[in-house]
Amino acid sequence: MSKDSNSYHLPVLLEECLDSLNPREDGTYLDGTLGGGGHSSAILRCLGSQGHLICLDRDAMAIAEGQKQLEKLKSPARLDIVQENFGHVTSVLQKLGVSGLDAALLDIGVSSAQLDFPQRGFSYMEDGPLDMRMDDSKGISAQELLGQASEAELCKILWDYGEERYARRIAAAIVRTRQHKPLTRTQELVEVIYRAIPHQARREKQHPAKRSFQALRIAVNDELGELERFLAQIPLLMRPQGKLLIISFHSLEDRLVKQAMRKWEDPCTCPPSFPVCQCGRLPLGQAQPRKGIRASDHEIAENPRARSARLRVFCFDGPGLDQVQAEGLQ
């Protein structure tokens, strides 16, 4: 098996996801990040003729590979594969005639397969065009963003999305460089970053361009915005006892997920000084476990990508779920 093919078949925290999902034969499940079909394949194997699996991905290459893997299973369950971002989950389910989900799963961030194809522009290790779009038919590329954004905007992107401590220096260097020649290749950008940071930072264990590439990828794909939109919609789509599973790989994503789950656990909007709740908002459920789940040492040894992964699970079993869904339908 080639490196490109193999990279598609390493689903992170798979056993932990299946333990949390405990899929029913007749359940309705959403995999909002199909990728190569690793998580979806495991779910589909559990479904019978009354089961239904909906798979989304904005990446056409992932859709093609994932569909190929799922069709090999010849499952009797209903299978719908849609090229769309999970931030549009409500409209997708409406078009499919799906009224509710028993569980939803996201494995967010860049995939190993996307990094393995230099022509996608995600990798700082190999040369390729500065694209970074997960759906290359929509939006602006990293090259266009680097050519259009002001120095202040670039600095904010690098700081907010990459937590890059040399954001000011790198943003200034990008602007100086593009005045003479547009940045069109990943290694051109790597060289600009390398020259912009202090000498001691170049010798750090982490690649000097890692944070900047992460930041630009998040900005190009509006990854945090799409996650926020998904989190706002998903309580309206879950059936009682339904579960939401989200695997994240860095603190920016995980913070949004954790904050949403904390709010679902305690949605009260009353001031702390109120002795008794007046808003009447009830809990939607609870996180299980509260601090999330990490990969085992064995999995990390088999798949180093799992090292930074955290799985958060939320069970919508609270009395506030009907309340929220009734309000959402008004």
Q: What does this 3D model show about the protein?
A:
This protein is globular. The longest helix is centred in the last third of the chain and has 15 residues, at 251-265. Strand 1, helix 3 and strand 2 (52-57) form a beta-alpha-beta unit. By secondary structure, it is of the alpha/beta class. Helix 8 crosses helix 9 (167-178), helix 8 packs across helix 11 and helix 12 runs parallel beside helix 13 (251-265). Strands 1, 2, 3, 4, 5, 6, 7 and 8 form an eight-stranded mixed beta sheet that branches. It has helices spanning 3-6, 14-21, 38-44, 60-71, 89-96, 112-116, 142-148, 151-162, 167-178, 186-196, 210-221, 223-233, 251-265, 297-302, 320-329; strands spanning 28-31, 52-57, 78-83, 101-107, 238-248, 286-287, 293-294, 310-316. Residues 1-7 have low confidence and may be disordered.
Helical proportion, percent range: 40-55%
Q: Helices and strands: which structural class?
A: alpha/beta
- What profile does the largest beta sheet have? 8 strands, mixed
| Percentage of residues in DSSP E strands | 5-15%
Compact overview of the structure:
This protein is an alpha/beta fold and 330 residues long. The protein has helices spanning 3-6, 14-21, 38-44, 60-71, 89-96, 112-116, 142-148, 151-162, 167-178, 186-196, 210-221, 223-233, 251-265, 297-302, 320-329; strands spanning 28-31, 52-57, 78-83, 101-107, 238-248, 286-287, 293-294, 310-316. It contains 15 helices and eight strands.
